[in-house]
């Protein structure tokens, strides 16, 4: 009796009580204004609601765990008159009003505004010390629930900070295309100085490497079969003669994983722009239930010199890239993104952006358990209002 139930309650209390937002969060004062300054797709005649008020309502609902337009509508119905007044809604909007608005929003403008705000806040030294080189992961995700008939699911390419899982840029990939053409517009308007771009093999392109370095950033890019000549040269490097420089051992998700990293200086010699070091990562993974072991070798190239990043830091940046996968997992599991049937116009992308923003806010407020955070903000809308700086 004294162990199970009390332990669960204590863990739940730790998740819900500790990360409550402080009275004032530096850098958050402009979020409600950012939402209100977006291009309004509605005709001026007949507008009953401010754009920022409607978007704030959607964000508050998502912070409280709403996963669909119906969920946002239920949140609006249940919202107290005081809450609606604080966000500037004198009357209750209809579901069709929210549907039409989200389906007509300029997706690029919304992502640019939200991403720029999150980037400014993430760079605020008041919150916590940041590493000299910040990791920025680039990866894509299909919003599978947006598939309808012959219409393909929308595919979004995002740039995600390793620290805090903040999406600071996002672009929609054109139908019947892939991530490669979307890479340049994703990053070309950003200040990438003191950032390290990490990406999977699809984005290991010479043009991408040139763009990254021209914008003052560095890269760590995985090399696979799409760069056959480069991969062949990497495999032929004298890895057996190079001493082990980093090793980690993890036990999680029912498996044990050992990762070994070696680094080799290669400048000049590799046919890839600005590559000065090659990286070999050997991953040995054992399923603790079946005992089956698999070994996988990953090669990568980087523009970082040994003076800019130690092997330990390189390993940290490579591991940090998978924060984008953790973000996608949260969007699918906690916010049921792939199960969503929002399909009209730009609404699927707008909802994905709202989820990104909600996760970024929750992480920056100190939460580690997103599900617990949504439960908390559903019942404590005053804390959610603080995140938007709408608290009276």
Order of helices and strands: HHHHHHHEEEHEHEHEEEEHHHHH
> What gyration radius follows from the Cα positions, in whole Å?
23 Å
The count of strands amounts to 9
Helical stretch count? 15
Strand order of the largest sheet: 3-2-1-4-5-9-8-7-6
Give the biggest sheet.
9 strands, mixed
Instruction: Indicate the proportion of strand residues.
Output: 15-25%
Describe this structure in words.
With 392 residues, this protein is of the alpha+beta class. It contains 15 helices and nine strands. Strands 3-2-1-4-5-9-8-7-6 form a nine-stranded mixed β-sheet, with helices on both faces. Helix 3 (51-63) packs across helix 13, helix 3 (51-63) packs across helix 14 and helix 6 packs across helix 13 (347-364). The longest helix has 18 residues, at 347-364. The chain starts with a helix and ends in a 5-residue tail after the last helix. The model is unreliable at 1-16 and 22-29 (pLDDT under 50).
How would the blueprint of this fold be written?
Layout: H1 4-17, H2 31-36, H3 51-63, H4 69-78, H5 81-86, H6 95-104, H7 107-122, E1 134-143, E2 154-161, E3 167-173, H8 179-187, E4 195-199, H9 206-214, E5 218-223, H10 228-235, E6 246-252, E7 255-265, E8 277-287, E9 293-302, H11 311-320, H12 323-333, H13 347-364, H14 370-379, H15 381-387
Helix pairs in contact: 3-4, 3-13, 3-14, 6-13, 7-13, 14-15
């Amino acid at each position: 009796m004294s162990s199970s139930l009390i332990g669960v309650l204590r863990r739940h209390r730790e998740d819900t009580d500790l990360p409550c937002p402080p009275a004032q969060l530096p850098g958050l004062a402009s979020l409600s204004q950012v939402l209100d300054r977006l291009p309004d797709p509605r005709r001026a005649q007949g507008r009953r609601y401010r754009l920022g008020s409607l978007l704030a309502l959607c964000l508050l609902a998502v912070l409280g765990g709403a996963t669909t337009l119906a969920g946002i509508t239920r949140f609006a119905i249940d919202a107290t008159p005081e809450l609606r007044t604080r966000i500037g809604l004198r009357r209750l909007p209809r579901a069709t009003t929210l549907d039409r608005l989200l389906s007509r929003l300029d997706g690029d403008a919304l992502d640019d505004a939200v991403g720029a705000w999150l980037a400014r806040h993430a760079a605020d030294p008041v919150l916590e010390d940041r590493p000299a080189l910040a990791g920025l992961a680039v990866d894509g995700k299909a919003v599978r629930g947006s598939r309808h008939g012959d219409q393909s699911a929308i595919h979004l390419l995002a740039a995600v900070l390793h620290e805090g899982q903040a999406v600071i840029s996002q672009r929609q990939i054109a139908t019947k295309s892939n991530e490669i053409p979307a890479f340049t517009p994703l990053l070309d308007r950003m200040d990438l100085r003191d950032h390290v771009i990490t990406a999977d093999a699809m984005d290991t392109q010479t043009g991408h490497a040139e763009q990254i370095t021209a914008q003052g950033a560095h890269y760590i890019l995985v090399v696979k079969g799409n760069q056959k000549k480069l991969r062949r040269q990497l495999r032929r490097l004298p890895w057996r003669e190079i001493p082990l420089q980093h090793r980690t051992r993890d036990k999680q998700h029912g498996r044990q994983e050992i990762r070994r990293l070696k680094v080799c200086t290669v400048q000049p010699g590799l046919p890839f722009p600005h590559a000065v070091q090659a990286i070999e990562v050997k991953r040995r993974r054992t399923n603790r239930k079946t005992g089956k072991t698999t070994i996988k070798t990953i090669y990568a190239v980087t523009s970082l010199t040994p003076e800019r990043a130690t092997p330990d830091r390189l390993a940290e940046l490579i591991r940090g890239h998978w924060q984008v996968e953790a973000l996608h997992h949260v969007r699918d599991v906690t916010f049921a993104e792939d199960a969503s049937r929002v399909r009209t116009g730009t609404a699927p992308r707008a909802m994905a952006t709202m989820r990104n923003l909600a996760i970024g806010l929750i992480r920056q407020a100190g939460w580690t358990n997103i599900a617990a955070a949504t439960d908390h903000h559903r019942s404590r809308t005053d804390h959610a209002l603080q995140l938007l700086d709408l608290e009276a």
